[in-house]
Every structure is written in C-alpha cells, then in structure tokens.
Amino acid sequence: MEQVVYRIRRFDGRKEFWQEYRFAHEANKTVLWGLLKIKETVDPSLAFVAACRSAVCGACAVRVNGEAMLACETPLDALLERFGATLVLEPLGNFPVIRDLVVDWEPKAARLAEAKPWLVPREEFSAEAGCRQSQAEFRRINAQTNCILCGACASECNKLTTGDDDFYEPFVYTKAGKFVADSRDGAAADHLRPVLARGLWKCVHCQECVTKCPKRVAPAEDIAALRRASIRLGLADNQGTRHARAFAGDITKTGRLNETTMAVKTDGLLKSATRLPFALRLLRRGKLNPFHFPAPVEGIDGVRAIVKAAKEAKE
C-alpha cells in the first residue's frame, strides 16, 4: 500500500462537508499520526484535538469507519488491513460539533456534574485522620478509575442516539457508580437519585459502551450495579424496579414471561388502562391473549435453581 486516504466529515461552523486527504503510507503509525501529517503538510485548517499521545487524556477520540476509538493508540496498519486504504473519520457521535473533529464537552460536563461525581466523606472520617480504605475495598472501584472521559461510550450509545432527555451518557453512570461503591463515601443516595431520574432503568443492553471503551471500563455493568444498589437502599418506587421484579417473578414461577400481566405489574392498573387502544390492536392481530396463562416450562426446577443462585451470589 503506497497511499492512505482519510475521508473526513468536516464542519466549518455553518455547514458540513466531506473532504478527502491522501498521504504516503508509513508502517507502524497511528491514526493520530495521519491527522498530524495532514495538518502539518497538507491542510492546516483541519481541526481536531490531541494532547498526551499516550491514551491517558482521552482528548483524541474520533470515529473511524463508524467506531469510536482513541486516535493516538489505534494502529493505522490494523485499520488499513481491516477496512482497506480509505478510512472514514468523523467526530464522536451524540456530541454537538464545534468544528471538524472537535466536539463540545461543556454540556456533557454539566450533565456529569448532576450525578455529583465526587467523594462525600463518611462522618467518621476527619481531615486529620483522612479517608482510608482497604485494598479489597479499593479493588471494588479500581475498574471505574480507569475511565478517562474520552466519550467513546457516549458516541456509540444506541439509547443516547434516540435522545438525551431521559438518559445520561454511559460514563456518567460509571462515575456515579464509582462513588456509590466507594467505601469512603457516605452519600450513595445523593449519587443514585440523579441517575434514577435520568434513565438508570432505560439502558437497552446493546453493550456498545463496553465494546468501544478503550480502557476496558464496562459502563453497562456499572448501570446494573447501580440498579442493585438503588433497590438495596430502598429507592425502588419506580417503573424499572417494578418491571425487573415482575420479570424475575414470572421467570421463577413458570420460566417464561406473561406479557398480559407484565404491563399491569410494571405500571399499575390505572396507567395500563391508558394503553387500552394499543392492547386492543394487539388482540385484533392475535399478538395478545388475555386468557393465556403459561404453564411451567420443562426443567423449571433448574431455572429456579439458577435464580436462587443469582440471588445468593455476592456482588
């Protein structure tokens, strides 16, 4: 391969346009090297952000052929082998774009602050004694400390793509989860209430935040841990908790869901009644049978044993 082509989605503050750049291939370089090559030798007007060049600051995250990644640590040759000589570069998804590959973090930072991502020391700690914790307690939050706020998880979040009114960026849940799980923190409910109000139970489990995180943080697992913590702390009067309990109850009882009663158990009779027109349409098309009460599946004892083991498992 003699030449590499970067096809870049640019934005000048008023309109979007695509521009192609060609440069000579050099072995063992990174995606960021290509961007710097263009800026230094072809087009100084191309805007992007980079700082540490060591996968520590997270500033250089971009989308390459539809996947968010850190430009500074991603080997260019690996992408060329996978996608061919032309790579399509775009700014992170689900972010407002300032210019070219530069996205606006200010609104994201404001949303992150709502979850109070800072330590609220327990009352027994003092300025003199400090906030100590054991190695075992630190290991419980060690994974979340690796989050560098690069935005890759938010870029690829399918729930966020549908709108951010009722869902936070995945890194917000990770940051909140870190302090909820921190043995030194004395305000778990203060971290939980904001994320409960903003979609904690609305994650669609696509796992894109997990597979695209360059630091191997798992926001989807943090969301699951926050859900368990909210129930444990009694913050359970919400649709998500009721749905989870109804789901677990059906599985334990018969090994399958009863969709006829699921809505009533989740939303209550009054709210479910507002969906009567929808239910009638399902009835007319044979998608819903109110008289169907599923019998236990074959092997239900095994299913119940799995549920029991899950309940007894330590977090």
TrEMBL record:
UniProt KW keywords: 2Fe-2S, 3Fe-4S, 4Fe-4S, Iron, Iron-sulfur, Metal-binding, Oxidoreductase, Tricarboxylic acid cycle
Entry keyword annotation includes Transferase: no
Q: Organism's domain of life? A: Bacteria
Q: Which residues form a coiled coil?
A: none
Q: Pfam families, alphabetically?
A: Fer2_3, Fer4_8
Q: Which prosthetic group or cofactor does it need? A: [2Fe-2S] cluster; [4Fe-4S] cluster; [3Fe-4S] cluster
InterPro entries listed in its UniProt record: 2Fe-2S_ferredoxin-like_sf (IPR036010), 2Fe2S_fd_BS (IPR006058), 4Fe4S_Fe-S-bd (IPR017896), 4Fe4S_Fe_S_CS (IPR017900), Beta-grasp_dom_sf (IPR012675), Helical_ferredxn (IPR009051), SDH/FRD_Iron-Sulfur (IPR050573), Succ_DH/fum_Rdtase_Fe-S (IPR004489)
- Class in the EC hierarchy, top level: oxidoreductase
Statement: the UniProt record of this protein carries the keyword Iron: yes
What EC number(s) is this enzyme filed under? 1.3.5.1
Where is the 4Fe-4S ferredoxin-type domain positioned along the sequence? 192-223
Quote the PANTHER family the UniProt record gives.
Answer: SUCCINATE DEHYDROGENASE [UBIQUINONE] IRON-SULFUR SUBUNIT, MITOCHONDRIAL, SUCCINATE DEHYDROGENASE IRON-SULFUR PROTEIN
Protein family membership: Belongs to the succinate dehydrogenase/fumarate reductase iron-sulfur protein family.
Q: What is this protein called?
A: succinate dehydrogenase
Ranked from the top, the taxonomy reads: Bacteria, Bacillati, Bacillota, Negativicutes, Acetonemataceae
